[in-house]
Amino acid sequence: MTKKERFAFVLQYFEEHAPNAETELIYDNPYQLLVAVILSAQCTDKRVNMTTPAIFERYPDIYALSKATFEELFPYIRSISYPNNKTKHLIGMARMVVEDFGGEIPATVPELVTLPGVGRKTANVITSVVHQQPNMAVDTHVFRVSARIGLTTNAKTPLQTELQLLKYIPREKVYIAHHWLILHGRYICVARNPKCGECGLRPACRYYQQVIRKQQ
């Protein structure tokens, strides 16, 4: 199977079986999503969703968050991974959005990555989820799944993975393909002992064909 054929199979499968895939982070607006994505770095969406309601109640918008002090915000984030850094990032992000962007969450990757706590992955998430821009956020799930299936070849970094995926995924499908790959990695193609028996991508999966079938 050629790489083009592999991509076609995978995309068609997901279109049929997960047509409405979306982020599992709970949010109502771009401000809430940005806060949630910053908190989600090396932390589960489930934990973030347990944490954000109290934050949003106390800080309902970017202006309220921009006025927070470290001592006030930290207790809300204590249960999240790296709470010290994330508390500082959220306050710094909010202040910069207010001061430099008039209180509006930026809508482009170059602008977003200037904010504290926002790297390329986070910026890609915001722009693809909120604006459906053709930006591919590569987290550990996307990185692992893409390599296992054979969508990427010898990609050593998230950026290399991103560029290889963008080469073959139609622009109009990039924003949802991001969710397809994440959710597949979260529930089926897990890091240890992937659930190949439940996976409909077996005919196109390089890992299954080269490793699992030989073991059987």
Describe the protein.
It catalyses: 2'-deoxyribonucleotide-(2'-deoxyribose 5'-phosphate)-2'-deoxyribonucleotide-DNA = a 3'-end 2'-deoxyribonucleotide-(2,3-dehydro-2,3-deoxyribose 5'-phosphate)-DNA + a 5'-end 5'-phospho-2'-deoxyribonucleoside-DNA + H(+). It is an enzyme of class 4 (lyase). The structure is a single chain. By secondary structure, this protein is an all-alpha fold. The protein has two domains: about 5-20 and about 135-210, Helix-hairpin-Helix base-excision DNA repair enzymes (C-terminal) (Endonuclease Iii, domain 2, Orthogonal Bundle); about 30-130, Endonuclease III, domain 1, CATH 1.10.340. It is built from twelve helices and no strands. The protein has helices spanning about 5-15, 30-40, 45-60, 60-65, 70-75, 85-100, 110, 120-130, 140-150, 160-170, 175-185, 205-215. Helix 2 packs across helix 3, helix 2 (about 30-40) packs antiparallel against helix 8 (about 120-130) and helix 5 (about 70-75) crosses helix 6. The chain is elongated, with a radius of gyration of 19 Å.
Look at the structure and give the mean pLDDT.
95
- Estimate nothing, just give the exact number of structural domains: 2
Number of extended strands? 0
| Silhouette | elongated
Tell me the series of helices and strands, N- to C-terminal: HHHHHHHHHHHH
Q: Main beta sheet, described?
A: none
Radius of gyration: 19 Å
| Reported CATH architecture of the largest domain | Orthogonal Bundle
Q: Kindly report the name of the CATH homologous superfamily of the largest domain.
A: Hypothetical protein, domain 2
Proportion of residues in helical segments? 55-70%
Number of helices: 12
Class from helix and strand fractions: mainly alpha
Strand content: under 5%
**What top-tier CATH class of the largest domain fits best?**
Mainly Alpha
